[in-house]
TrEMBL record:
<keyword id="KW-1133">Transmembrane helix</keyword>
<protein>
    <submittedName>
        <fullName>YccF domain-containing protein</fullName>
    </submittedName>
</protein>
<keyword id="KW-0812">Transmembrane</keyword>
<feature type="transmembrane region" description="Helical">
    <location>
        <begin position="28"/>
        <end position="47"/>
    </location>
</feature>
<keyword id="KW-0472">Membrane</keyword>
<feature type="transmembrane region" description="Helical">
    <location>
        <begin position="93"/>
        <end position="113"/>
    </location>
</feature>
Length: 124
């Protein structure tokens, strides 16, 4: 049995709080990420978006990878400096716009879940 709130409670939360609070939350998270020193807090905030948006708890991800692990830190740092900071801003904006369409919420949540990878090639 899932410990997720009911669909009614999640929908009510989205309508009353989730849609606008997520926009503010994502803006702060992105600004923190761009400051470089704020990256850990910004990425943590990004990972909390599905919960803030719709009270959806993240399911534990169990996945086998042939290559295993993350890209080296140097590669991830270069990615962030050249691509990640601006690509994540665009990605976040598109995801939030999809959130506001209501029918785009499933795709938006998928995009939010991919955001750590867009920012810094971090595999969640």
């Amino acid at each position: 049995m899932s410990d997720q709130p009911s669909l009614f409670v999640r929908a009510l939360w989205f309508l009353l709080v989730g849609w606008w609070a997520t926009g503010i939350w994502l803006s702060v998270a992105w600004l923190l990420t761009v400051t470089i020193i704020g990256i850990p807090l910004g990425v943590w905030m990004i990972n909390q978006v599905p919960m803030l948006l719709s009270l959806k708890r993240r399911d534990p991800l169990v996945e086998e990878r042939g290559s295993g692990g993350q890209y080296p830190l140097v590669v991830r740092a270069v990615w962030f400096l050249l691509v990640g900071w601006w690509a994540s801003g665009i990605w976040t904006g598109v995801a939030y716009a999809l959130t506001l369409t209501v029918v785009g919420i499933p795709l938006a949540i998928w995009m939010y879940n991919q955001l750590p990878y867009v920012v810094s090639l971090y595999r969640y």
